[in-house]
Amino acid sequence: MSTTTTTAPSPSPRKPMPSALTFNLDAKCSTTKARASTLHLPHGAVKLPIFMPVATQASLKGLTYDQLKDTGCMLCLNNTYHLGLKPGQAVLDEVGGAHKLQGWDRNILTDSGGFQMVSLLKLARVTEEGVRFLSPHDGTPMLLTPEHSISLQNSIGSDIMMQLDDVIATTCPDIERMQEAMERSVRWLDRCIAAHKYPEKQNLFCIIQGGLDLDLRRKCCAEMVARDTPGIAIGGLSGGEAKEEFCKVVDTCTGLLPERKPRYVMGVGYPEDLVVAVALGADMFDCVWPTRTARFGNAITSAGNLNLRNSSYATDFGPVEVGCTCTCCLPTDQGGMGITRAYIHHLTAKETVGAHLLSIHNVHHLLSLMGSARQAILEDRYPEFLRQFFSNLYKGDKLKYPKWAVEALRGVGVDLLA
Ligand SMILES: [Zn+2]
């Protein structure tokens, strides 16, 4: 493992980076910036826009891979940090990567491991070399460099791998630190590209940083785009910033990114955030929220989130969501499990299986939401889709529509209040 420090980004233009994907732009919304596309990855074609569930330890909390396949998922996330600790790189190399380890023959995206460290370990410290931290197992000092992150992701064999970036909370008021993190992320991308052993088999995505400062974001876009990675992520968001700021950053970045590359906004999973970010030109999203909130008894539905722990559901014998085609909600005579709200209510108090069933429904709901958005874009009726979505979510009460969503969509030609 090398820990070479590069202090300046290499000059561009540079020779094109090999790519293990092809990106077909299938349709563009004639009003908003929304796109429908197909991403051909080593383990199959993925229809965009897409929500990607997070399988932290090579397992989606509570779901088997068959159940995950039943939700229609073609691409899920694994955490490099967790896989690097357990089973560890030697085991991954021996078994031939995470697809084989998990028995998952569809696509995997891995994060760099950096965010996990900075967010999980209080003692993590970022230097030009990498992220220094103490092992959560035995307290020994460790260092995650861009080279080591890429080496781990090469062993995992993920179809999409993420660069190690210097990620700090968007709410950080220190603009100098924000600029340093952005510039360091560019230098680290160069080190990631140099360390990447299999660019013809695995796709490395860069990550645009720069906090909420649009000038920093613009500069970062220019540097990152010049490096010509197969796909591009917008990072550092969903850290507690105001939704107005989130929308401005996404809108600014997508305006500067090449049209024929996938755009991934990291850490986004609330339904209204997804449909608005799609309107702003983003294609891919991930979040632990649908499975995490399932553990608290929350069902994501088109009419908002329902807490099935509430006693009012004790005698509600309808499905979690009427019309949902997930294996949890689908009636038994249609091949589903015919699970009722009352049953989940009964289980959530004491049995983890309640959370498993809700995870199936919640992940399916977000995948299906993105599938419906895609269909609407293909048929060039995304503005109508947005109006219907917000009407369903707020039961027709326009006074309740969030101001940030109304403003962001007005910016791309859709007036929700008209
Ligand atoms: Zn369902």
Automatic annotation (TrEMBL):
Pfam families (UniProt xref): TGT
GO cellular component, one term: cytosol
Catalytic center residues: 111 (proton acceptor), 286 (nucleophile)
Cofactor: Zn(2+)
GO molecular function terms noted in the UniProt entry: metal ion binding; tRNA-guanosine(34) queuine transglycosylase activity
EC number(s) recorded for this UniProt protein: 2.4.2.64
Region RNA binding, annotated ranges: 267-273, 291-295
Catalyzed reaction equations: guanosine(34) in tRNA + queuine = queuosine(34) in tRNA + guanine
GO BP terms: tRNA modification
Subcellular location: Cytoplasm
InterPro entries (UniProt xref): TGT (IPR004803), TGT-like_sf (IPR036511), tRNA_ribo_trans-like (IPR002616)
Keywords on record: Cytoplasm, Glycosyltransferase, Metal-binding, Transferase, tRNA processing, Zinc
Binding site for substrate: 111-115, 165, 209, 236
Subunit structure: Heterodimer of a catalytic subunit and an accessory subunit.
UniProt cross-references to HAMAP family, sorted A to Z: Q_tRNA_Tgt
NCBIfam families cross-referenced by the UniProt entry: Q_tRNA_tgt, tgt_general
Described function: Catalytic subunit of the queuine tRNA-ribosyltransferase (TGT) that catalyzes the base-exchange of a guanine (G) residue with queuine (Q) at position 34 (anticodon wobble position) in tRNAs with GU(N) anticodons (tRNA-Asp, -Asn, -His and -Tyr), resulting in the hypermodified nucleoside queuosine (7-(((4,5-cis-dihydroxy-2-cyclopenten-1-yl)amino)methyl)-7-deazaguanosine). Catalysis occurs through a double-displacement mechanism. The nucleophile active site attacks the C1' of nucleotide 34 to detach the guanine base from the RNA, forming a covalent enzyme-RNA intermediate.
Family: Belongs to the queuine tRNA-ribosyltransferase family.
Protein name: Queuine tRNA-ribosyltransferase catalytic subunit 1
Species annotation: Monascus purpureus (Red mold)
